[in-house]
Amino acid sequence: MPHDHHHHHHHxxxxxxxxxxxxAVAANVALTLAQIVGGILSGSVALIADAIHNLSDxxxxxxxxxxxxIARRPTxxxxxxxxxxxxxxxxxxxxxxxxxxxFYLAYxxxxxxFDPPEVAGWxxxxxAGIALAVDSLTALLTWRMAKxxxxxxxxxxxxxxxxxxxxxxxxxxxxxxxxxxxxxxxIATLGIAAYILWMGFSEIKGVIHILMLGAPTGIAxxxxxxxxxAVEGVDSVHHLHLWQISEAVVSLEAHVVVSADxxxxxxxxxxxxxxxxxxxxxxxxxxxxxEGPGERCDHPARIGGTSAPVL
Length: 311
Fold this sequence. Notes:
Number of strands: 3
CATH class of the largest domain: Mainly Alpha
Number of domains: 2
Oligomer: single chain
Structural class: mainly alpha
CATH topology of the largest domain: Alpha-lytic protease prodomain-like
Helix content: 55-70%
Shape: elongated
Strand content: 5-15%
Protein backbone atom coordinates (compact mmCIF):
# COMPACT_ATOMS: atom_id res chain seq x y z
CA MET A 1 0.00 0.00 0.00
CA PRO A 2 1.23 3.58 -0.46
CA HIS A 3 3.19 5.29 2.28
CA ASP A 4 3.18 8.89 3.39
CA HIS A 5 6.53 10.65 3.38
CA HIS A 6 7.36 13.91 5.15
CA HIS A 7 10.55 15.80 4.28
CA HIS A 8 11.38 19.07 5.98
CA HIS A 9 15.14 19.39 5.40
CA HIS A 10 17.26 20.86 2.64
CA HIS A 11 19.78 18.17 1.75
CA UNK A 12 23.26 18.61 0.37
CA UNK A 13 23.76 17.01 -3.05
CA UNK A 14 24.77 13.36 -2.41
CA UNK A 15 27.92 13.56 -4.54
CA UNK A 16 29.04 16.78 -2.85
CA UNK A 17 28.33 15.20 0.54
CA UNK A 18 30.36 12.11 -0.39
CA UNK A 19 33.27 14.33 -1.40
CA UNK A 20 33.18 16.15 1.96
CA UNK A 21 33.20 12.88 3.88
CA UNK A 22 36.05 11.54 1.71
CA UNK A 23 38.17 14.62 2.45
CA ALA A 24 37.38 14.28 6.16
CA VAL A 25 38.51 10.62 6.06
CA ALA A 26 41.76 11.56 4.31
CA ALA A 27 42.48 14.31 6.82
CA ASN A 28 41.90 11.98 9.79
CA VAL A 29 44.06 9.18 8.34
CA ALA A 30 46.92 11.62 7.74
CA LEU A 31 46.52 12.97 11.27
CA THR A 32 46.52 9.46 12.75
CA LEU A 33 49.81 8.60 11.04
CA ALA A 34 51.39 11.86 12.21
CA GLN A 35 50.23 11.30 15.79
CA ILE A 36 51.48 7.69 15.89
CA VAL A 37 54.91 8.75 14.61
CA GLY A 38 54.94 11.65 17.05
CA GLY A 39 53.87 9.43 19.93
CA ILE A 40 56.61 6.87 19.18
CA LEU A 41 59.32 9.51 18.82
CA SER A 42 58.21 11.40 21.93
CA GLY A 43 57.37 8.34 24.04
CA SER A 44 53.85 9.65 24.73
CA VAL A 45 51.20 6.96 25.08
CA ALA A 46 48.58 9.70 25.46
CA LEU A 47 49.43 10.94 21.98
CA ILE A 48 49.18 7.40 20.61
CA ALA A 49 45.87 6.98 22.44
CA ASP A 50 44.53 10.12 20.79
CA ALA A 51 45.85 8.83 17.44
CA ILE A 52 43.94 5.56 17.82
CA HIS A 53 40.82 7.50 18.70
CA ASN A 54 41.27 9.61 15.58
CA LEU A 55 41.74 6.40 13.58
CA SER A 56 38.41 5.16 14.90
CA ASP A 57 36.86 8.43 13.75
CA UNK A 58 38.44 7.99 10.32
CA UNK A 59 37.01 4.47 10.23
CA UNK A 60 33.63 5.81 11.31
CA UNK A 61 33.72 8.41 8.54
CA UNK A 62 34.87 5.76 6.06
CA UNK A 63 31.99 3.53 7.08
CA UNK A 64 29.63 6.49 6.72
CA UNK A 65 31.05 7.17 3.24
CA UNK A 66 30.40 3.65 1.93
CA UNK A 67 27.18 3.19 3.91
CA UNK A 68 25.79 6.42 2.40
CA UNK A 69 26.32 4.95 -1.06
CA ILE A 70 24.88 1.55 -0.14
CA ALA A 71 21.87 3.10 1.62
CA ARG A 72 20.91 4.95 -1.57
CA ARG A 73 20.49 1.71 -3.50
CA PRO A 74 16.84 1.03 -4.40
CA THR A 75 14.83 -1.82 -2.98
CA UNK A 76 14.81 -5.07 -4.92
CA UNK A 77 13.34 -8.56 -4.72
CA UNK A 78 16.10 -9.70 -2.39
CA UNK A 79 16.05 -6.63 -0.10
CA UNK A 80 12.44 -5.49 0.01
CA UNK A 81 13.17 -3.04 2.86
CA UNK A 82 16.09 -1.58 0.93
CA UNK A 83 19.62 -1.00 2.16
CA UNK A 84 19.11 1.82 4.66
CA UNK A 85 20.30 -0.31 7.56
CA UNK A 86 23.80 -0.60 6.09
CA UNK A 87 24.76 2.42 8.18
CA UNK A 88 23.47 0.81 11.37
CA UNK A 89 25.34 -2.46 10.76
CA UNK A 90 28.51 -0.51 10.03
CA UNK A 91 28.03 1.60 13.15
CA UNK A 92 27.64 -1.53 15.28
CA UNK A 93 30.94 -2.90 13.98
CA UNK A 94 32.68 0.42 14.50
CA UNK A 95 31.36 0.97 18.02
CA UNK A 96 32.27 -2.56 19.09
CA UNK A 97 35.82 -2.00 17.87
CA UNK A 98 35.89 1.36 19.65
CA UNK A 99 34.98 -0.27 22.97
CA UNK A 100 37.74 -2.87 22.57
CA UNK A 101 40.23 -0.06 21.85
CA UNK A 102 39.03 1.82 24.94
CA PHE A 103 39.74 -1.17 27.20
CA TYR A 104 43.16 -1.65 25.61
CA LEU A 105 44.11 1.99 26.17
CA ALA A 106 42.92 1.78 29.79
CA TYR A 107 45.26 -1.19 30.27
CA UNK A 108 48.17 0.69 28.68
CA UNK A 109 47.51 3.75 30.84
CA UNK A 110 47.49 1.68 34.04
CA UNK A 111 50.75 -0.04 33.08
CA UNK A 112 52.38 3.35 32.53
CA UNK A 113 51.72 4.27 36.17
CA PHE A 114 54.12 1.54 37.27
CA ASP A 115 56.83 2.65 34.85
CA PRO A 116 56.25 6.23 33.66
CA PRO A 117 58.41 6.85 30.53
CA GLU A 118 60.16 10.07 29.68
CA VAL A 119 58.13 12.08 27.20
CA ALA A 120 59.34 14.74 24.74
CA GLY A 121 56.93 17.49 25.80
CA TRP A 122 57.51 19.92 22.93
CA UNK A 123 56.92 17.26 20.27
CA UNK A 124 53.69 16.31 22.02
CA UNK A 125 52.55 19.93 21.98
CA UNK A 126 53.36 20.38 18.28
CA UNK A 127 51.65 17.17 17.11
CA ALA A 128 48.61 17.78 19.32
CA GLY A 129 48.38 21.30 17.89
CA ILE A 130 48.29 19.83 14.38
CA ALA A 131 45.59 17.39 15.57
CA LEU A 132 43.52 20.28 16.88
CA ALA A 133 43.71 21.99 13.50
CA VAL A 134 42.72 18.83 11.58
CA ASP A 135 39.85 18.07 13.96
CA SER A 136 38.55 21.58 13.38
CA LEU A 137 38.85 21.12 9.60
CA THR A 138 36.97 17.81 9.71
CA ALA A 139 34.20 19.35 11.79
CA LEU A 140 33.94 22.16 9.26
CA LEU A 141 33.61 19.67 6.38
CA THR A 142 30.75 17.79 8.03
CA TRP A 143 28.80 20.31 10.12
CA ARG A 144 26.17 21.12 7.45
CA MET A 145 25.55 17.44 6.69
CA ALA A 146 25.20 16.74 10.42
CA LYS A 147 21.92 18.67 10.44
CA UNK A 148 20.18 15.98 8.35
CA UNK A 149 22.05 12.78 9.21
CA UNK A 150 22.30 11.22 12.67
CA UNK A 151 25.21 9.10 11.45
CA UNK A 152 27.20 12.08 10.20
CA UNK A 153 26.13 14.10 13.25
CA UNK A 154 27.72 11.49 15.51
CA UNK A 155 30.97 11.73 13.54
CA UNK A 156 30.78 15.53 13.75
CA UNK A 157 30.37 15.40 17.53
CA UNK A 158 33.28 12.94 17.72
CA UNK A 159 35.49 15.48 16.00
CA UNK A 160 34.46 18.23 18.37
CA UNK A 161 35.24 15.94 21.29
CA UNK A 162 38.58 15.02 19.66
CA UNK A 163 39.43 18.68 19.53
CA UNK A 164 38.92 18.82 23.29
CA UNK A 165 41.10 15.70 23.61
CA UNK A 166 43.84 17.42 21.62
CA UNK A 167 43.62 20.37 24.00
CA UNK A 168 44.09 17.91 26.91
CA UNK A 169 47.19 16.43 25.24
CA UNK A 170 48.61 19.93 24.71
CA UNK A 171 48.14 20.58 28.43
CA UNK A 172 50.00 17.31 29.16
CA UNK A 173 52.91 18.51 27.01
CA UNK A 174 52.99 21.85 28.83
CA UNK A 175 53.00 20.12 32.23
CA UNK A 176 55.89 17.89 31.14
CA UNK A 177 57.92 20.79 29.72
CA UNK A 178 57.28 23.09 32.68
CA UNK A 179 57.29 20.67 35.63
CA UNK A 180 58.69 17.33 34.34
CA UNK A 181 55.42 15.74 35.52
CA UNK A 182 55.46 12.58 33.45
CA UNK A 183 52.51 11.04 35.29
CA UNK A 184 50.33 13.53 33.41
CA UNK A 185 50.69 11.29 30.33
CA UNK A 186 49.15 8.07 31.75
CA ILE A 187 46.52 10.15 33.55
CA ALA A 188 45.51 11.72 30.23
CA THR A 189 45.56 8.27 28.60
CA LEU A 190 43.07 6.96 31.16
CA GLY A 191 40.94 10.03 30.61
CA ILE A 192 40.85 9.45 26.85
CA ALA A 193 40.11 5.74 27.39
CA ALA A 194 37.26 6.58 29.77
CA TYR A 195 35.80 8.98 27.21
CA ILE A 196 36.05 6.37 24.42
CA LEU A 197 34.32 3.74 26.56
CA TRP A 198 31.59 6.16 27.62
CA MET A 199 31.00 7.20 24.02
CA GLY A 200 31.05 3.62 22.72
CA PHE A 201 28.67 2.17 25.31
CA SER A 202 26.26 5.12 25.21
CA GLU A 203 25.95 5.02 21.39
CA ILE A 204 25.93 1.26 20.86
CA LYS A 205 22.76 0.88 22.93
CA GLY A 206 20.79 2.98 20.46
CA VAL A 207 22.15 1.09 17.45
CA ILE A 208 21.33 -2.29 18.99
CA HIS A 209 17.86 -1.05 19.93
CA ILE A 210 17.08 -0.15 16.31
CA LEU A 211 18.55 -3.37 14.91
CA MET A 212 16.46 -5.35 17.42
CA LEU A 213 13.33 -3.63 16.04
CA GLY A 214 12.84 -1.64 19.22
CA ALA A 215 10.20 1.07 19.37
CA PRO A 216 11.57 4.54 18.54
CA THR A 217 12.87 6.45 21.53
CA GLY A 218 10.47 9.18 22.55
CA ILE A 219 7.35 7.53 21.12
CA ALA A 220 5.23 5.73 23.73
CA UNK A 221 3.20 2.83 22.35
CA UNK A 222 0.28 3.50 24.70
CA UNK A 223 0.15 7.11 23.56
CA UNK A 224 0.12 6.01 19.93
CA UNK A 225 -2.76 3.63 20.68
CA UNK A 226 -4.69 6.42 22.40
CA UNK A 227 -4.30 8.75 19.42
CA UNK A 228 -5.38 6.06 16.96
CA UNK A 229 -8.41 5.03 19.03
CA ALA A 230 -9.49 8.67 19.38
CA VAL A 231 -10.13 8.81 15.63
CA GLU A 232 -13.81 8.81 14.67
CA GLY A 233 -14.94 5.41 13.43
CA VAL A 234 -12.21 3.47 15.25
CA ASP A 235 -13.45 1.11 17.99
CA SER A 236 -10.09 -0.34 19.04
CA VAL A 237 -6.54 -1.08 17.93
CA HIS A 238 -4.44 -4.19 18.59
CA HIS A 239 -1.30 -5.97 17.38
CA LEU A 240 0.55 -2.65 17.35
CA HIS A 241 4.13 -2.85 16.08
CA LEU A 242 6.49 0.14 16.12
CA TRP A 243 10.02 -0.03 14.73
CA GLN A 244 12.64 1.90 12.77
CA ILE A 245 13.86 0.84 9.34
CA SER A 246 16.69 3.35 9.75
CA GLU A 247 17.54 6.23 12.08
CA ALA A 248 15.17 8.53 10.19
CA VAL A 249 12.35 6.21 9.12
CA VAL A 250 9.74 5.11 11.67
CA SER A 251 7.27 2.38 10.71
CA LEU A 252 3.98 1.25 12.23
CA GLU A 253 1.80 -1.78 11.67
CA ALA A 254 -1.49 -2.44 13.47
CA HIS A 255 -4.94 -3.99 13.27
CA VAL A 256 -7.72 -1.41 13.46
CA VAL A 257 -11.27 -2.46 14.39
CA VAL A 258 -13.77 -0.17 12.66
CA SER A 259 -17.23 0.67 14.05
CA ALA A 260 -20.31 -0.72 12.30
CA ASP A 261 -21.33 2.62 10.77
CA UNK A 262 -17.92 2.90 9.01
CA UNK A 263 -17.79 -0.66 7.68
CA UNK A 264 -17.12 -1.95 5.07
CA UNK A 265 -16.25 1.42 3.50
CA UNK A 266 -13.53 2.31 6.01
CA UNK A 267 -11.47 4.67 3.86
CA UNK A 268 -12.24 7.75 5.99
CA UNK A 269 -11.10 6.37 9.40
CA UNK A 270 -8.08 4.72 7.74
CA UNK A 271 -6.98 8.02 6.21
CA UNK A 272 -7.67 9.87 9.48
CA UNK A 273 -5.54 7.43 11.48
CA UNK A 274 -2.63 7.88 9.05
CA UNK A 275 -2.98 11.65 9.19
CA UNK A 276 -2.99 11.65 13.00
CA UNK A 277 0.11 9.45 13.15
CA UNK A 278 1.95 11.69 10.70
CA UNK A 279 0.96 14.93 12.43
CA UNK A 280 1.60 13.90 16.03
CA UNK A 281 4.46 11.39 15.76
CA UNK A 282 5.94 11.98 12.26
CA UNK A 283 5.45 8.29 11.47
CA UNK A 284 5.81 8.04 7.70
CA UNK A 285 5.40 4.32 6.97
CA UNK A 286 2.01 3.01 8.12
CA UNK A 287 0.43 -0.36 7.35
CA UNK A 288 -3.08 -0.96 8.71
CA UNK A 289 -5.18 -4.11 8.70
CA UNK A 290 -8.79 -2.87 8.88
CA GLU A 291 -11.23 -5.22 10.60
CA GLY A 292 -15.02 -5.07 10.83
CA PRO A 293 -16.95 -5.32 14.11
CA GLY A 294 -17.25 -9.10 13.83
CA GLU A 295 -13.84 -9.74 12.34
CA ARG A 296 -11.46 -8.79 15.13
CA CYS A 297 -8.80 -11.29 16.17
CA ASP A 298 -9.48 -13.68 19.06
CA HIS A 299 -7.83 -12.52 22.31
CA PRO A 300 -5.52 -10.04 20.55
CA ALA A 301 -2.48 -8.48 22.19
CA ARG A 302 -2.70 -4.70 22.37
CA ILE A 303 1.02 -4.32 21.67
CA GLY A 304 2.96 -6.84 19.58
CA GLY A 305 1.58 -10.28 18.90
CA THR A 306 1.35 -12.26 15.68
CA SER A 307 0.93 -10.18 12.56
CA ALA A 308 -1.76 -11.16 10.05
CA PRO A 309 -1.92 -10.42 6.31
CA VAL A 310 -2.74 -6.78 5.62
CA LEU A 311 -5.08 -5.08 3.15
